[in-house]
Design brief:
Helix content: 25-40%
Strand content: 25-35%
Distance between the termini: 28 Å
Low-confidence stretches: none
Largest sheet: 7 strands, mixed
Strand order of the largest sheet: 1-2-3-4-5-7-6
Structural class: alpha+beta
Number of domains: 1
Shape: globular
Oligomer: single chain
Number of strands: 7
Radius of gyration: 15 Å
């Protein structure tokens, strides 16, 4: 499979990214009993207007496209938090494309872009009880900083961080 990396900007690209995230996050939504009411910001429930609004507001989003069938197979984005720090957002790989190194490739490509933009740290929040995901991020060089409960969420959130450089 040959992948092409694009920055998501057009309405068609945004629609394809939403489909990718809906697919990628649906399994986790079922596993952790998430729905639109208790986890409205989860990617399983993402809608076109919401993602378009995020991009207009400054979220930088990239997608990996399978050049053979033009499927968006994965996405990764970030929001600027401070002069040095960005937050990883909308990171997803479609279920049928997992285990092929696409996520690692997306993260490495995103890190290079982030460093080229002058940032030196990436933070993220993820479902604390999803040990597979927490372990994945640790293998990618992230450190667990804290875990918190929020009244509005049915799960705890683990906050992680990674220093990046050229």
């Amino acid at each position: 499979m040959t992948l092409k990396w694009i920055r998501v900007q057009s309405n068609e690209e945004i629609k394809a990214a939403v489909q990718c995230m809906n697919d990628a996050f649906s399994e986790v939504a079922v596993q952790f009993n998430l729905n639109k009411q208790n986890a409205p910001h989860n990617g399983a429930f993402l809608e076109f207007g919401k993602l378009k609004s995020e991009i207009i507001s400054g979220t930088v989003l990239f997608a990996a496209i399978n050049e053979e069938n033009l499927d968006v197979v994965g996405c990764a984005g970030y929001k600027v938090k401070t002069e040095q720090k960005v937050e990883l957002v909308r990171f997803a790989v479609r279920k049928c494309y997992r285990g092929l190194g696409i996520g690692v490739g997306l993260l490495k490509g995103l890190e290079k872009h982030i460093v080229s933009e002058g940032y030196s740290e990436i933070t993220l929040g993820c479902i604390a009880e999803d040990m597979h995901l927490v372990d994945y991020y640790i293998k990618q060089g992230f450190r667990l900083m804290s875990t918190k409960s929020f009244k509005r969420l049915p799960h705890k959130v683990s906050f992680m961080s990674k220093k990046v450089k050229l």
